[in-house]
Structure prediction request, 257 residues.
Amino acid sequence: MSLLKRETLAAIGARFGVDWQMLATENGLKQTRVLKPGEEIAINNLRIIPKTVEDGIIINVPDRMLYLFKNNELLTSFPVGLGLPDKKWQTPIGPFLVVRKARNPTWYVPKSIQDEMKKKGQPVKTIVPPGKDNPLGRFAVHTTMEGVLIHETIWPTTVYQWRSHGCIRVNPEVMEEFFDQVAPGMTGEIIYQPVSVAIQEDRVFLQVGRDIYGKVSSIDAEVQTKIEERGVADNVDWAKVEDVLKKKTGIAEDVTR
Prediction:
């Protein structure tokens, strides 16, 4: 891609769903470098859709991606920010429904976050009105999961990271369109699938992300199982598989023999 404005690698990584450290390495750049308009960088954000549904939302925690389906087709997908690895703040796994949508929402600060503010010596806020300082941004989608919203973030570089208190943060560039695409009653599911395998035109692709919440006993065994389930164990280069396992980039890579 060719840059149209000055940008940091962190901002680009958050927008495209790529670890910014990997962007720096693959483009031979210093991690602290600010990129100038006109510069070109290579971005590989090829992904395997972890699960499909007829209509609804799928969010994969290790993938840090949201997928929206309509009429058996993928309508859109984009990176999201998710809960911290600390068990207290992890984004919960399971099905949900969209309850309601709010423009310019007011943030009613949960008691747990108030306690954290107090512990850190910060001013304790109970209610944050709409505006530029509201962490929910301009758009919020409420779900049946207690305390879990899908919302715009005023900290876009935290997208594609695990830094929230459980909510799903969305880049302002895509949140408004997503807000218009969802409606109360829509189904959704937050899943935990760090390993995906896909076959396309006799090529085998493997995607391995980080087991950030420590829910998988063995990623190596998970990869072996997924490959065997797809019946392609004889078609993969196991050295390539080992390399994907080692890097855990969350990007789909060709491991065909």
Remarks:
- The longest strand covers residues 73-83.
